[in-house]
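Supplementary notes for students who missed Thursday's class. We covered one full example, reproduced here. Read the sequence, then the structure, then the short commentary at the end.
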Amino acid sequence: MKYFEFISASGIGAIIGIVIMKLFDIWSQKIIEKREKKRWLSDKQLKAFSKLSKELMSFRLIKETSDIYNPFEFRAIASESILLIDDKKIINQIEEFIARLDALYTKRAGNEEKQESEYNKLYKKSLEIVNALGKILIEKKVN
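Structure (token representation):
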């Protein structure tokens, strides 16, 4: 009789062990998936933010862009980053920057002093945006 009880207890123990291992496996898989998703999002943000930062800081005056300023192309580049930003304030700053840069390029002829003042304001705005994007990346790495 003791032999039968031992086999029954061992079988139940094995089943409990298998269930516990399966639950642990499911739990660990979810943690791994969250980590991988976080890493993927971080990589996407780094690529998109780097490209946008390059465009912001260069005022789209780099050789890789066309000779003619095109605000729609700039918005297309910005849209990838905008999709990855939760903060509406930063999104609005990007949109405002693009609109003001477009206005600066369409008003090329005119008061040079006023244009230089606008250029300086845009430069400061581009620094603010790039710093905000950097903070997003740093916060994602820390969390």
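Commentary. The longest helix spans residues 2-58. The chain has four helices and no strands. If anything here is unclear, bring it to office hours.
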